[in-house]
């Protein structure tokens, strides 16, 4: 029988791609999602259990029914602006929901969790590229909520033997090359889908937030990592825990930084035409540059990214050209 893995938030963007890779690796991904940000049509590789990570009774029933051997946890709010506007809601869902999920896992005898963390726990870079020992000083409640969970996981490992791998990813992007799933958020706040929509004439412009950062062209620099490369790392992290290895933290990024203006240029090359740009004020909570040092993941986890920026944009472009905007809840 295939081992079941409970994937909290598995109907979302990164979660769904991870379910694809889990199925290819021989596992049964059991998606647990309240569908507030996920898409039922993304659940294609295992059963869907609709529920909220803050619902202890529902979680207990799902653990009892499917008997997963581990949990992969994506269920969280991710929009930085919303975290600043409503920090209480962020902490309730991202921290409180994670505690409820972990406690349900413990009641079911499950002691292994792969956690979707973020480079936002680092805050403004002290040095670039950023390794796992970089100081953690988040600039916004989103990053702080993820850091709080990392700290909880450290204590659970130390005092309760609950093992985890926290994956601090940089900027997820791209889509399944076969077009089965891709990136869509409501509202959409991520740079690549917004720029592609502008390039395709589906938006009237693309907004650059801040042109006066201390970077090579004044715009923010980010490390764009293909979503399937991220998904591969989650499968490797799961195997790491199932093999009995200790709790760990890994950065997931390419090690290459791309400025927003450079990203726009790459999308213009793909679309064969420029599109309207608007320069706006900086957004609160945005760091000037976030680039990964991924040596630890390469050396210990055996992971390395396989897709470059052109592949990311090509796969994202194909996804948006083939009906991404027609998704309905």
TrEMBL record:
Q: Which residues form the NAD-dependent epimerase/dehydratase domain?
A: 5-253
Please give the SUPFAM superfamilies that the UniProt record associates with this protein.
Answer: NAD(P)-binding Rossmann-fold domains
What cofactor does its activity depend on?
NAD(+)
Keywords in UniProt for this one? Carbohydrate metabolism, Isomerase, NAD
> What Gene3D superfamilies does this protein's entry cite?
NAD(P)-binding Rossmann-like Domain, UDP-galactose 4-epimerase, domain 1
The source's domain of life comes to: Bacteria
UniProt-recorded name of the protein = UDP-glucose 4-epimerase
- Source organism per entry reads Caulobacter rhizosphaerae
